[in-house]
Backbone:
């Protein structure tokens, strides 16, 4: 079966600091929920930006749904939703206006779908309020709503639970599980909330020093009596990457 996402030998190094990623390769299948773990500065956000084309790679390839993103960007990204780094919105818009602007890129998105995603994230009741009055958690929910609005087949999420309260975190888990099980949606999630990832993810990878050190089946770790946190800390210690984590 053709993978949803295939990253091959992806490399991006920043001048001066030398930080970035080196020769990273991974793949996601339909319905995968993949957790990307790593210390601060390990290159997690850089990897997500490279996958979406927000920054240019020094080497390697990104293939989405069998399409080389560097050659056919629009076609490759047509079924991808993303939320990368902190949510940033024009404060003068309402939540409804923002989603309506986002929907212009997806002809299949209806007002009913807009209401559905706002209801799912708990913002339907405040859809006519200006975003400038939203808390950080409310903005995070709106960013998540925009990411899943067109029913994408792959969703990339960078620290998606930042700012969310307990109810918001429970909503997030429920949404991810439902989309994966019912719609076959794949997720690549970068997060420091390792206990959340343990509950959600089918697979996980540890990114440290700009390289993908190891991948593991999460359910297999749990069945063996371990935890994702134990697995992560073991890999970081062995690779000498604990400083700055």
Residues:
């Amino acid at each position: 079966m053709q993978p949803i996402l295939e990253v091959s030998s992806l490399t991006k190094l920043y001048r001066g600091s030398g930080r970035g990623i080196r020769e990273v390769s991974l793949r996601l299948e339909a319905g995968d929920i993949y957790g990307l773990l790593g210390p601060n500065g390990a290159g997690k956000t850089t990897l997500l930006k490279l996958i979406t084309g927000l920054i240019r790679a020094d080497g390697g390839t990104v293939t989405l749904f069998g399409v080389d993103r560097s050659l056919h960007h629009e076609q490759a990204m047509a079924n991808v939703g993303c939320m990368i780094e902190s949510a940033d919105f024009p404060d003068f818009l309402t939540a409804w206006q923002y989603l309506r602007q986002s929907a212009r890129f997806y002809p299949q998105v209806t007002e009913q779908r807009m209401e559905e995603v706002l209801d799912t994230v708990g913002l339907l009741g405040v859809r006519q309020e200006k975003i400038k009055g939203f808390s950080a958690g409310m903005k995070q929910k709106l960013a998540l709503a925009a990411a899943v609005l067109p029913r994408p087949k792959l969703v990339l999420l960078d620290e998606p639970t930042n700012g969310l309260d307990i109810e918001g975190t429970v909503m997030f888990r429920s949404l991810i599980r439902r989309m994966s099980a019912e719609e076959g949606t794949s997720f690549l999630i970068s997060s420091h909330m390792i206990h959340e990832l343990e509950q959600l993810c089918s697979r996980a990878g540890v990114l440290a020093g700009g390289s993908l050190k190891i991948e593991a089946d999460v359910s297999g770790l749990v069945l063996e009596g371990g935890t994702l946190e134990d697995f992560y800390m073991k890999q970081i210690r062995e690779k000498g990457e604990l400083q700055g984590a």
Q: What stands out?
A: The chain has nine helices and ten strands.
